[in-house]
Amino acid sequence: MFKRMVLALSAGLLSVAQAGGSGPFTPRLPGPPQFRAVPCPDSVSADRCGLVKVSLDHAQPTGKQIEVFVAVKGAMSTLKQDTPLFFMTGGPGGSSATDLGWLANYSVTDFDFVAVDFRGTALSKPALNCPDSSAASLLRCARTWNIPASDLNYFNSVQAAQDMESVRRALGYSRINLLGISYGTVVAQQMMRLYPASLRSVVLAGVLPTQSSSFAAALPATDDLLRRMLQSCGEQAECRQNHAGLLANFEHQWPALPASTRNAVRRYVSWLGGQSQAIAEGLTVTEQLLKKEAVHLLQPESNLEPDLSYGLNGVVNCLEQVDFAPGHLPPDLSSSRLLGYMSYSERLEVCRKLGLTTPPAELHQPVRNSVPTLLLDG
């Protein structure tokens, strides 16, 4: 349903979008990048596929090169638009090319679809492959990538956005439309900041902010979700009767609970957020917890996605979500596992062992331009 909504609303925006604005900074790139055609694998539903060489560090255009995988699905309508739709999936580490199949099957038929696997992901080369996101696995996988630790610092969203511009130029499009989902919205926002003149319109679905850490923001956001659930209960007579004084007890006792307990509840509530029984179960568990009763916080055994490049996922999270500055970590943040199966302190240690110490300075700069933009669910 979410995917249908994204496509329907994005089609509406794309049909009315006007020329994008111009920004203060338009990076210069050397001669046009080249698209090298390769056969499309069975997992990619596209008319043509290829690889585009891009700079590992776009600030050094004559330096080391890597390749990003590109899949193109032609418009199915005779009323084809001149500007294609560039699709950027989530993760980080998801394959935009593999997801192209479900995207192209919906009703947006007037546009060429272009999907680019982010650097380090899936069919791009090199791919930072890893079977899961555990600390031990990431460190073990890193030894198989044959990539200097210093090079890993360039596998970030700012460089990925510049890859997209290289692909646009390689395919010969003057302007493009963007559709970013989840993590793809981060790369899309960097494109909006760097290359507004290359964009006709933008759709951001499940928007992730670029100016704050999701690790830190997830804690108060989940607390707010839980508090809203309790407030909603207090506004309904039957619920208020069944859970008398629950909100007041929560406000009084929550700060005194151990950090490990608060984080376990946060993770449980976060997981319940996508379940239909979320409110009822969340209220019951919270009440039992505050009464110091035994509570079993049922959670899924695994949220692993088989097609996700967990190496790239770990590297991007290190570079864009972890604060490397020395200092004491608050207990709640240190033990938090809201964004994966590593606690924040474990992830910080892994990041240091991987040699990831240089977050992109431009990442948190604000995005300001006149590109027509539709925000969905965020």
Give a description of the structure.
Helices cover 40% and strands 12% of the residues. It is of the alpha/beta class. The chain has 2 domains: 2-210 and 361-376, 3-Layer(aba) Sandwich (Rossmann fold); 214-290, no CATH class. Strands 1-2-3-5-4-6-7-8 form an 8-stranded mixed beta sheet, sandwiched between helices. Helix 5 (157-171) packs across helix 6, helix 10 packs antiparallel against helix 11 (278-290) and helix 12 crosses helix 14. The longest helix is centred in the middle third of the chain and has 21 residues, at 214-234. It is globular and about 65 Å long. Residues 18-25 have low confidence and may be disordered.
Q: Any chance you could write out the topology, listing elements then pairs?
A:
Layout: H1 2-16, E1 35-38, E2 48-55, E3 65-73, E4 85-88, H2 96-104, E5 113-116, H3 135-142, H4 149-152, H5 157-171, E6 176-181, H6 183-194, E7 199-205, H7 214-234, H8 237-242, H9 246-253, H10 259-272, H11 278-290, H12 310-321, H13 331-335, H14 344-353, E8 373-376
Helix pairs in contact: 5-6, 7-10, 9-11, 10-11, 12-14
